[in-house]
Amino acid sequence: MTPDREVDARGLLCPLPVLRARKVLEGMAPGEVLRVLATDAMAAIDLPHFCSQAGHDHLGSRIEDGAQVHLIRRGDRVAA
């Protein structure tokens, strides 16, 4: 899967990876995919939780070159 956009949040601590992802997702069209790179261990919990609350699909994560790689599909709705 080729992501449409990417956020490099490596080296940033909670809540910055989620805040950066949210900002980029707001400018994306429904169905587009965002790739988020993060090194904060809490991102593994925070990003899926954010997605479920905001109406996005967390497509999964993996470790790549020492960083978490999260794929998020922009949802049709965005929670207030």
Write the layout of secondary structure elements.
Blueprint (H helix, E strand, L loop, with lengths): L4 E5 L6 H11 L6 E6 L4 H12 L2 E8 L2 E7 L7
Parallel strand pairs: 1-2
Antiparallel strand pairs: 2-4, 3-4
Would you give an account of this structure?
With 80 residues, the protein is of the alpha+beta class. It has one domain: 2-Layer Sandwich (Translation Initiation Factor IF3). It has helices at residues 16-26, 43-54; strands at 5-9, 33-38, 57-64, 67-73. Strands 1-2-4-3 form a four-stranded mixed sheet, covered by helices on one side. The chain starts with a strand and ends in a 7-residue tail after the last strand.
Order of helices and strands: EHEHEE
What name is given to the CATH topology? Translation Initiation Factor IF3
Under the CATH scheme, which class?
Alpha Beta
The N- and C-terminal alpha carbons lie at a distance of 29 Å
Helix content: 25-40%
- Secondary structure tally, helices: 2
Q: Strand fraction band?
A: 25-35%
Low-confidence stretches: none
Count up the domains. 1
Provide the structure class: alpha+beta
**CATH architecture assignment:** 2-Layer Sandwich
- State mean pLDDT (0 to 100 scale): 95
Shape: globular
**Biggest sheet character:** 4 strands, mixed
Radius of gyration: 11 Å
Task: Going across the biggest sheet, name each strand in turn.
Answer: 1-2-4-3
Q: Superfamily at the CATH H level?
A: TusA-like domain
Number of E-state strands = 4
